[in-house]
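Hi V.,

You were right to ask for the full record rather than a summary. Here it is.
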Amino acid sequence: MTEYEIFSLDVRDKRCPMTTVYVRTRLDSMTSGQKLRVLIKGEEPKRNVSTAVRALGHQIIDETHVQEDSGFYCLLIVKS
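Predicted structure:
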């Protein structure tokens, strides 16, 4: 894997706090500088994952509302 590859994780079918657990587990398996694209459903899971990711020292470089009607979000995270 190169540092330019972007990993993906879809947790739209998970509920809090499992959304955060899955994201943290995936980030723990990555190396510094790699990027992770996370698909999330709902405002609360997005907020919880964002808070946890930042508390761990990682950076969210993009946050997109993917589908207005469905409440899907996409976070692009860079591992610290």
